[in-house]
Every structure is written in C-alpha cells, then in structure tokens.
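Researcher: Next sequence.
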Amino acid sequence: MTALANSPEFHYQDGQLHVEALALAAIAQEVGTPFYCYSSAAIRRTYDNFASALRGLDPHIAYAMKANGNLAVIATFAGLGAGADVVSEGEVRRALAAGVPPAKIVFSGVGKTEAELEMALQAGVLLINVESEVELDTLSAVAVRLGVSARVALRVNPDVDPNTHAKISTGRKENKFGIDTGRIMAAFARAVDLPGMEIDGLAIHIGSQLTDIEPFRRAFTILATLVRELRGAGHTVRRLDLGGGLGIAYGDEPGPSAGGYAELVRQTVGDLDCQLTFEPGRALIGNAGVLVTAVILVKDSASRRFIVLDSAMNDLTRPSLYSAEHAIVAVAEPAADAPLHPFDIVGPICETGDTFATGRSLAPVRAGDLLAICSAGAYGAVMASSYNARLLIPEVLVDDGDFAVVRRRPTFDEMLDQDYIPDWIEKRESSENRAPVGPDVSAKSARRDRG
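Model: Next structure:
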C-alpha cells in the first residue's frame, strides 16, 4: 500500500487510489465528476497533532473557517473540541449551524459592518478582534445600544514580512490589516475608557501559507514586548490571539511542523501567563482533501501536449490566482515502469489561465481516466464560482468505509432560478425577435415571482 506524500489517508490499494477504506473511483461512479473529497481520519489526525503540540499552553483552537466552510467539516472540528475563527456574519451563522458554541467563536476581519457586529454580540461570541480605532467607536456604540459588553482584542500590525505570496501577506505595514504597533498603547487606553467594551488583549495574524516559521518568531516577539509595555502602563492583558498561517507542503517537500511552531510559541510568549488563541485553517484541512476530476480528452499541438479535464479554474482557483502548484496523480495506479511524458493539465474554461499545471510529468492517460488534484481541502470549494455558467461541484466526506455527499451539485434549473428577467424586457421585445426556447429551458425558469 503506497500513501500520498502528505496525507496517508489517501493511498493506493489494489491498483486504485483510496481514501481511507473507499476507492475514489467507486465514489466517482456514484457522485459523478468533478467533486471534492475530504477524509475524516485526516481531519482528526491533523487536529490531534496540532493540539498535542500545544499541550501545556492551555490553547483555544479556533478553526479558521475561511479555509473550508462546509458544515460537515466545521462540525467534525467542533466534535474534536475546536472553536471557529470567522470573518463575516455568514461564517458566524455557519459556525453556529455546525454546532460550534458561541463562546468558542472569534470574529476577525478588517471591515465588519454594524449589522455584523450586532449579530455577533447578540449571538454571544467569545471575542471580536478589532482592527482600527474607527472600529472601536463603532463597536462601542453597537454594544451600548444593545446593553451588552463586547469582549475585544486589538489586532496588531507588526510590519513583519511573512515570506509568503504577496496576496496572502497580512502583517506588513502596507497591508490593510491591524493597528500599527506605534498606535497600540493609545488605542488600548482608549478602548479601556470606551463604554460597552471589555478589552481582553491583543491579536496578530501575519499571513497565510507560511512554510518558514521564523516570521512568527519576529511577530510574536513584538507582541510580547507590547504586552509588557501595556502591563507596565497599568493595563490588564489576559489573552493573546496568535492567528493562523502555518503552511502545508503541497508537493514532496517537507512542511513546517506543528511541534516546531509550538516550541517557538513557548519561547516567545509562553511566559506571559495569557490565554492563547490559535486560528489554524489550511494546516488542519489542506491535505485532508482532494479534487477528483475526469479527463475529457488529450490534445496534441505543435509544441505541447494538453490533458483537458472536466474541472476548471472556477472549481479550484489557486493555480490561476496564486500560481500555486498542486500534486496531481492518477486514480488508477500507473505501472512502476510506465513512461512519463510532460503535459499541460488544463480545464475547459475559455481562458489560458485555466491551467492546473504546466509541463507536469505523468504516465499517459486517455479520455475517461480519473485524476486527483491533491492538497485541495483548503481554499478549494470555498472559493469556487459558477463562472462560464458551470455548476458548483459536490463535496464528499468519508469516514472509514462510509461516505456522504455533504454539499450536492445544484441543477441547471436551480442556477437559472437565481436570476430574474424584469417584465419590461419581455414587453419591449416582440415574440418574433425572441430566440426560440428549448424543451428543457423556459424564460419562466430564469425568473422568480417577486410579488
């Protein structure tokens, strides 16, 4: 039995790629392709590994739902004891619907609206991470109006380069997130004096997909200095939210270890006697999922060989958005001596950017063969769209020998029914100028009765 490099729950058995005890090809036959598939065992393993590494620090682990917001995934983490890190009212509602206790929810985000803050306070969330002095005023006003006390932490922008992709860097001074370190003392004192506020501590998050943990050391050291300065000025600092950002290995390279990260936490802030909150997302779910897709055709051009898949950039946007590289493997195990050829692996969308890999070495494939795009559990389905009027694809959760479709594929009628054709358009166009309507599609199916 041969396991994939970063997730032993996905392994070859009897010539077929399995997830836990199930063959992915068998799931594909029932569900159709493309689809996302998540392993419950992988979720449990990564969570237990992270929690064990932090043992002795009394950690509050709040799963970062932005990585994967499927209710079944969130509920699995909640069952393991995790809270949730959320960044919108919709994510608050998802966390609650999945069974996360309000007292374990942390509400982050640079642009929370008054309506979102009101909903979060009414729900009784544990903590709101405030990212500007303006937000302090807004939150205070909302809390006073509701007659409640808002527990808050101030998010620090430490101006630390996380050495990650520019689009997911969040801790540099030019990024939109957090309050500059030079303004934290004044902002903290102001928060103490504002009505309806219970200032609890500080928060930090410097970026996503950090494979070098040294930027964490610089950021957490700055945070520790601020805590000592605040306490020296007579303030109480009870909590530090250390954010997330720990990366994963997307290929054969070794990823950062939870143990190394935990030891760094102990060295930098472990002696401050603060409740520590962590917001891992990708580190917990990234390697617990794959995208299963079928080959539509193999196309030879003058200079390239293309494998055209039935999945596309709307299903998994990371390669086109971040130039990310995911391992891609055949679901039917190739022979050990199978010749390898360079292929460009692409989707059917009308953009050259709809490319998953360029010059990737694979054994020959043909139409109908299945491939698995690995490490797709994070920022896959949650970032998907219906671009090119493509249907969102299903999500499947496996637990040993069982699987469930935890988000089904919508129908074309359901997609069309999201739109509305105003009456005035029909009135202006004569029937002879309208295109004929096919047998399974009607103008009515693209309208909703708004009365």
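Model: The longest helix spans residues 214-232. The chain has 13 helices and 22 strands.
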